[in-house]
Design a protein that fits this description.
Blueprint lengths: L1 H16 L8 H5 L7 H8 L4 E6 L2 E7 L6 E9 L2 E10 L3 H10 L3 E6 L2 E7 L6 E9 L2 E8 H7 L3
Antiparallel strand pairs: 1-2, 2-3, 3-4, 4-8, 5-6, 6-7, 7-8
Length: 157
Amino acid sequence: MKKTRAIMIAAIMLLALAGAAMAVDIDTLDRVSVLMPKSEVIAILGPPDDVLDVGAGLKAEVYKVEGIEPMMGTGCIYDGDRLAGQSFMFAGEMTAGAAERLKKHGFALLEEKNAAYRLLGNDDDTGRVFMVHVFSEMGMTIVMTFEKEFYDRHNKQ
C-alpha cells in the first residue's frame, strides 16, 4: 500500500499544478478499461497532461478533468503497453460513501483502517479481478483500481 500511496500523492501534486487541460467527460472515461493497449487509451483520452515516473519502472499518465465535479483528475498506470491501473481523484472527503458504493456493486471489503478501505471485486467491463484502494489525502478522496495480478506483483513485501 505504501507504493500505491506514493504514486497517488505524486499524481495529486502534479494535478494541483497542472494548467488547463482538454476536457474528458465521464462517458469517455468509461470507454477506458484495464488491459487495454496504451495506444487505444491515448486514442480515447488523448495525450496525457503529464507523465510521472513513479519508480519501480512504472509511469503514471495524468489527466486533469473538468466539468464532472467532484472528480478532479484521473491517472493511468501501465504494465508495459497495457493499462494495469487507474486512479480517480475527487474533491472532498467521501471515502466511506465510495467504499459503500463499491460494496453495493459486489466488491468485498478486505480492510478498513483509519478511514481507508481496501476492496476486492470484479470489473464490470472486463470481469477481471480488481484490487481497489479508497483513501483521503490533502482534502481529496482517491479511488485507485488495479488489475489483481499486477497489484500482487508490485506489492510483495
